[in-house]
Amino acid sequence: MTVGHSRWAPPEAMPSVAPRSGAGGSNSTGPILVASDGASPSAFIVARLLAERLGAELSVVSALEPSNVVMPPLDPLAAPVRAGATRMEVRRARLVVTGHTHHGVIERFVRRETPLAIARAARVPVLALPAAMTRLPRSVVVAVGLGDAAVRVSAVAGSLFGDAVAVHLVHVREPALPRHDRAMREEEEADDRSFEHAFDRARERWRLPADVSAVTRVLVGKPADELQKFAHSVEADLLVVGLAIPGDAPHLPHRSLAARLYREWPHALLLVPIGDAD
């Protein structure tokens, strides 16, 4: 694999965006990285908007699969940055922005699902954008559950969610097994207190503008189904979900909530690594 790295200067025609009043930045160091082969202009545009609001450096990293056909280049190519050095820079980044391309079952065996792979390897949030998205999100749904993914996006939340009309913090509870009514009620009340605490922590850390409402919701059902149903009902253009990093345990992609949402959700998706490595 050939890995290249460069700083990207946006065209002068692209408009600048000033931070909204109350939109919190971040003291975190590290650039916003665009991981792209050049086929997704939306990744460049949205990453540039975020970098301006955060006051962060914007860098571009591209990776090309090796080809079996060797052809002499028309112009000498710049020497690629060492892969190890590029990986180290990704680990220091606060966010990676890339394109979101849906693959069928056969394509997934042939072509890797790059955003999922980056999030697992680099352990930083990855924003996967569809080609048509060229602005910051207006309606956001954040899945709140184990791993506290909502809090882990605080470094970019104030800027990424700053143009939203509403941010919905949603927890999906699996249907309870039949048991004594009193025990079930006590367990549900304990769960509600736990997730209300998670909701409060996220709101405190995000530093959203005063005119962006943060709404909480607890649903019952299968997480992937309920999240997508609710997200469609509020016309969400960004869904935020934790991506479990199980350490040395075997990875079961078909059981991953984040992987299923990546394959089914048609709009922007923010993958937030959570797990043993944190």
Q: Name the poorly predicted regions.
A: 6-17, 67-71, 74-82, 104-111, 248-254
Class based on secondary structure composition and strand pairing: alpha/beta
Any idea of the CATH class? Alpha Beta
Please estimate the helix content.
25-40%
- Rounded to an integer, what's the Rg over CA atoms? 20 Å
Residue-averaged pLDDT: 75
What is the assigned CATH homologous superfamily? HUPs
How many structurally independent domains? 1
Neighbour order of strands in the largest sheet: 1-3-2-4-5-10-9-6-7-8
Largest sheet: 10 strands, mixed
CATH topology: Rossmann fold
Shape: globular
User: How far apart, in Å, are the first and last alpha carbons?
Assistant: 28 Å
Give a quick set of tags describing it:
single chain; alpha/beta; Rossmann fold; 9 helices; 10 strands
Write a brief caption for the model:
The protein has nine helices and ten strands.
What this model shows, in words?
- This protein has 278 residues and is α/β, with parallel strands linked by helices.
- It has a single domain, classed as HUPs (Rossmann fold), CATH 3.40.50.620.
- The protein has helices at residues 41-54, 83-92, 105-110, 114-122, 149-152, 154-160, 181-206, 223-233, 257-264; strands at residues 2-7, 32-35, 58-64, 95-99, 126-129, 139-143, 166-173, 213-220, 238-245, 268-275.
- It is globular and about 55 Å long.
Note the topology.
Blueprint: E1 2-7, E2 32-35, H1 41-54, E3 58-64, H2 83-92, E4 95-99, H3 105-110, H4 114-122, E5 126-129, E6 139-143, H5 149-152, H6 154-160, E7 166-173, H7 181-206, E8 213-220, H8 223-233, E9 238-245, H9 257-264, E10 268-275
Parallel strand pairs: 2-3, 2-4, 4-5, 6-7, 6-9, 7-8, 9-10
Antiparallel strand pairs: 1-3, 5-10
